[in-house]
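Inputs:
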Amino acid sequence: MFFALTNFIAILNNIIKINSVGGFIINIAVAQSGGPTCAINSSLAGVFCQGQKQPEIREIYGSYNGIQGVIEDNLVDLSSVIKNDDDITLLMHTPSTALGSCRYKLPDFDKDNEVYKKILNTFKKYDIKAFFYIGGNDSMDTVAKLSAYFKANDIDIKVVGIPKTIDNDVAMTDHTPGFGSAAKYIATTMQEIIRDSSVYYLDSVTIVEIMGRDAGWLTASSGILKVNGEVAPHLIYLPEVAFSIEKFIDDIKNVQKSSKSVIVAVSEGLKLENGEYVANSCLSDTVDVFGHQYLSGLGKYLENVVKKEIGCKVRSIELNVLQRCASHIASKTDLDEAMMIGEQAVKNAIEGKTGVMVVFERISNSPYTIATNTVVIEKIANKEKLFPVKWINDSNNGITDEAIEYFLPLMQGEISPLMKNGIPVHINLMHHKKIK
Ligand code: F6P
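Outputs:
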C-alpha cells in the first residue's frame, strides 16, 4: 500500500518534471562502498525512492563498485533495474551491496587531480549535480575529498555521506545502519551456539570470534542475551582494553568452577598491552588501501592456547562474513532506519547541503526515538568511534546494563522475506554492469 502510494506520487512527479524542463531539474548518483551489511541496500532504496518523489530530480544513477564506477563511467539508470514496488522490497531484503563495492582511497587533489577530472567528466556527461556515498568511516574520506575538490573549484555538485557499517564505529552518529541487523544475528547465533555446546556432560570451552576491527560494538552485542535469561556468553573481550593471555586463562578457570560449558566472545581486533594484535603471528600481511590489516584467526589462536593451558575440549567458531549478510534475521528497525537515512540525504542535498554526512541522534531509549541531523564530514572521515570503556564491566570481561539498553532498540522487529524453494529471494542489479 505504502509503495503503491509512493509510486503514484512518483508518476505525478514525473509529469511535473517533464513540464519543468529548462527549470532547476537535476540528475543524481548514488554508490556503495566498504564492507557489506544487511541494510546498505535499504539506504540505496531510500535514495532512489526519495529521488523519485523529489520534483527537482529527473534521473537517478547508480555507480557500480563505489567511486570506481564513477571514475570508469560505469553507471546504470536505476529506474531501468528497479522497476516496481516489489523490486524495492526485494532490494531492502537483499544483503550486501547490490551495486558492488570498493575499498578505494582518493589521492589528495592538490597533489594528483587526474582522477578528480575523470569523476567530473562522468558527472558532467550525465548532468549529475548531487552524489550520495553510502559507506563507513573510510568511505567518508571520499566524501570529504570530493566535496572539498568541488568547493575549491567552484563546482556546484553536492556530495552527501550516508553511514553504514556492521562495525558501528562511525563518528558523530548514535549508530550506523547495518549494525542492528548484524548484532541481532550475533545474539541469535550465540544463543544457538550456547544450546549446542551445552549438551555433553564434559568440560568444554567454545570461543566465538566476531568482527569489528578495532571497535568492540559487535562483540559486545552478544551480551544482550542476559535480558532473555542466558548466563552465557560467560566472558566477552573487547579491543578497547588491552588483552592478557594469563588473565584470559584465569577467567576461564574461574567460570569452570560453576559451568562445564564455557562460552567466550572475542573481538577479531584484540590487542596486547604493547599494541600488537593478539594473533599477530597468525595474521596475513594483507593490508587494505586505508592501512587496515585483514583480521582473521584469533579464535583459532586462542583455541590452541586454551588446549595447551587447560587441556579440555575446545572449539573456536569464526563468524566471519556470515555476520554481515544474514538478512534472514535482519532487524526491521535497522532496515527501516537505513531507508529513512537514505531519503533524508536526498532532502539534505536538495536543501543545498554538501560535505556532510547524515547522522542519527538518539532522543530516548524508551520509547525508542531518533532524529536525523547532518555533521560536517571533516569531523567524521577516517575517525573511529570505539565502544565506551564505561560500558565494560570492572573485570574487563563483560558489558554493563547501560550497553544493553543502547543495543536493544536497534535489534527490534523482523522482516518476512520473499521465499523461493524455501530460500530467501535476492535481487541482482549487477547484470547491467559494463564489463571492461
Ligand atoms: O568494516 C567492516 C568489516 O566487516 C570489518 O568488521 C572487517 O574487519 C572488515 O570489514 C573486513 O574487510 P573485507 O571485507 O575487506 O575483508
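Remarks. The mean pLDDT is 94. Residues 179-197 form the longest helix (19 residues).
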